[in-house]
Amino acid sequence: MTRFGLLSLAVASLVQTGLAGKCHPSKPVLSCSAGAQPGLVTSCEAETFGGLVLSTQFWDTYTGLESEGQLLPEKSFTLHGLWPDFCNGSWTQYCDLNRQYDPHPSPNTTTGTPAGTPVPPYSGPTVDTFLAALGRPGRTLLAWMNKLWVAHGQPNTELWAHEFSKHATCFSTFAPSCFSSEDLNQHTDLLVYFSAAADYFNRLPTYDWLAAQSITPSNTTGYTLADIQSALAARHGATPYIGCSGPRYNETAAGQGSLDNGRTVLTEVWYYYHVYGPVQAGKGKPVEADVNGGSTSSCVKADMAVWYYERTPGSERRA
Predict the structure, then answer these.
(1) Which of the four, 75, 98, 116, 202, has the lowest number of CB atoms within 10 Å?
(2) How far apart are CA 151 and CA 36, in angstroms?
(3) Does residue 80 carry a catalytic annotation?
C-alpha cells in the first residue's frame, strides 16, 4: 500500500469497467511496438493512438485559494495529469468535443492554431457532480483527488475537467467505443480515467524519492539538476523530464555571464511510459524522457542552481 493509501477496492474494480466486455489478447500488446497498430489489435485492447504515456506532477508552493480550503498535501507533489503523446513525441488535444467539460479550454482550438476546430467553453455541471452521482466509488475518488490532485489559481474541478477534456479524450483506450452506453450516460469514463491517473501517480512518490537523497524543499539551499534526475531515475527506472519555471539562470546575479539559460525554479516532473494493454490496466514500462530525442529538462544545469522552494505557510493540509 502506498503512503497515501490505495483507492478503495470499489474504485479499483470500476477502473476495470473500461476493460470489461472487450476481447483482449492473452499477451498484452506494448504501445508504440510493431503490434500496436490498428488492424492488428483493437483500440480498446492496446493504446494505438497516444502510445507514449506521461504521468505528470506539479510542485506548487501555494494554491491561491487557501481561503476556500484548497490546500496542498504535506510532503507530496500533486498530480497534474495522465497524457497521451504520439509515439514520435508529438501530441494532439480535445479529441472528442462531445466529452468537453473544460470551462476555459486552453488552447481554444483542437490544434492550438486559428485553423483548428474551436473548442467551446463548457458551462454545465462540474465534473465532481458526475463522480459524486456514482455513489461510494466516486465519493472515495473525489476525496483522494481533493487531497492530491490540487490546482493552482483555479478550483480543483476546473483542472480535472481540463485534464479529461484535453487529454483523456485522445487515448484510444478511453474512447467511447470502450464503454457501454450505460457507462457513458453515467460518466463512468471520467471515473475510469481519473482513477487510472491516480493509480499511476500513487506509484511515483517523487517527494519521498528526492528526500531519500537529502533533496528536500528549501528557501536557502539550491540543488543540482543532475542529482535530481539521478535520484528519480534510480527509482522510476528511466530519467523523467524535470520542468522548471522562474528566471533564466543567465538572467540572475548568480549566473551573470553564463551561457546556461535554463530556468531556476523546480515546478514539474513528467514520467514517461510505454504501456502493455489498455492504459487503465496500469502496466507501464518506464522509458527515457528523451526517447524521441527531445529534452529531459528545462532547468539550469549549473551546480546548486535549481531552487526547490518550501511551501508558503498556511498552504499545506496537515495530516
Answers:
(1) 98
(2) 34
(3) yes
